[in-house]
Each structure stands twice: as C-alpha cells, then as structure tokens.
C-alpha cells in the first residue's frame, strides 16, 4: 500500500518554516490587533471578506468576534461579507462579481469601521475594489495577503504579507493571525 508520509513531511516542513518566519511579523500583528481594539472602542465594527478559503476565514474570524473566542464577554460587532447569497448573487448578476464586496462596503461601512481583506495573491479584484471603497469612506483598512502582497499591499493602512507563494501555507498563517487578533481583542 502506498503511503503519503514523505509528501506530508514536506508539507509539514514548509508549514513549520513559514510559521518560524511569522516571529518577524509579531510587531505588525500586534499593531493590527490594537487597531481593531481602537475600532471597537470608538463604536466601529469589523467587516471581513475574501474568496474561497479566505471567505471561510472571514466567516471563522467574524464568528469568533461576535460569539466567543476564549473568554466570556459581550458580543462584539463583526460581519463577514461572504454569507448573504441573495446580495452576492444579485450584485454579482446585475453589476459583476468584482462588485460583490465593494457594494456591501458602500452600504454598510462607516468611517469608524475596520475592513479586513483576505487574499493570498493580494490581487482578487472584488477584495481590491472593496478596500478602495473602504478607503474612500475613511475606514481603517487591513490586508492579509501573501507573496508580494499584490495590489492590496499598496492600498491598505496595515498590510500583513505572509512570506510564502503557496496558497495553502498562506491561508494557514492567515488563520493564525485571525486567532491572534481575537486574543488581543479579548485581552484585559
Ligand atoms: O482555499 C483555497 C485553496 O487553498 C481556494 O478556495 C482559494 O481560496 C481560491 O482559489 C481563491 O479564489 C483564491 O483567491 P485569492 O486568495 O488569490 O484572493
Ligand atoms: Zn484552502
């Protein structure tokens, strides 16, 4: 019987190498956590978006914030812009897929808010457009990307660029960051 252990060992080694490099990003992760605390303290909310696995990450992080991560506390305001299939299909159908997030930012975002775009390439056009609209509104903008950071890197107030070109590895690091900022949001 064929086994996959050699392959898995390589995947694990690549994951571990990336996580070792995350040490260098801890100051930036801390800053983003503080920016999100400031957003909530001034009465803002957190909007998140991404495609595919990053859509799942957006929902996962919003659920931690609205519900509970580790601590008993009041619910905090966060919305994943990836969940309303009526909005996504109508805006996608009537205006185009590239507008599915920007239209929601236009409708829901205030200058008090923070908007988090999650894209491993940094180039998903629907995320890029949404961040552009968030900037016009005056919200705090945060990009979680990989590789070179793509188009998003030039746009956001805070850019967390994972030092990898492999989508799966970048996503694994993104969810570590999502959990880390939840830790910071729940800190005393
Ligand atoms: O989860 C994965 C791959 O691990 C995929 O669903 C992946 O998220 C999709 O291909 C996305 O469309 C990639 O978009 P992006 O990360 O470049 O913005
Ligand atoms: Zn994935």
UniProtKB/TrEMBL annotation:
Cofactor: Zn(2+)
Residues binding substrate: 51-53, 64, 93-94, 119-121, 124, 171
One of the record's GO cellular component terms: cytoplasm
SUPFAM superfamilies in UniProt: SIS domain
Enzyme class: isomerase
Recorded GO MF terms: carbohydrate derivative binding; D-sedoheptulose 7-phosphate isomerase activity; zinc ion binding
CDD domains according to UniProt: SIS_GmhA
Substrates-to-products reaction catalysed: 2 D-sedoheptulose 7-phosphate = D-glycero-alpha-D-manno-heptose 7-phosphate + D-glycero-beta-D-manno-heptose 7-phosphate
Entry keywords, A to Z: Carbohydrate metabolism, Cytoplasm, Isomerase, Metal-binding, Zinc
Compartments where located: Cytoplasm
Gene Ontology biological-process entries: carbohydrate metabolic process; D-glycero-D-manno-heptose 7-phosphate biosynthetic process
Keyword Zinc in record: yes
Source organism, top-level taxon: Bacteria
EC number(s) stated in the UniProt entry for this protein: 5.3.1.28
Subunit structure as annotated in this protein's UniProt entry: Homotetramer.
Other information: The reaction produces a racemic mixture of D-glycero-alpha-D-manno-heptose 7-phosphate and D-glycero-beta-D-manno-heptose 7-phosphate.
Function comment: Catalyzes the isomerization of sedoheptulose 7-phosphate in D-glycero-D-manno-heptose 7-phosphate.
Stated family: Belongs to the SIS family. GmhA subfamily.
PANTHER family listed in its UniProt record: DNAA INITIATOR-ASSOCIATING PROTEIN DIAA (PTHR30390:SF6), SEDOHEPTULOSE 7-PHOSPHATE ISOMERASE / DNAA INITIATOR-ASSOCIATING FACTOR FOR REPLICATION INITIATION (PTHR30390)
Name this polypeptide is given: Phosphoheptose isomerase
Originating species: Pseudomethylobacillus aquaticus
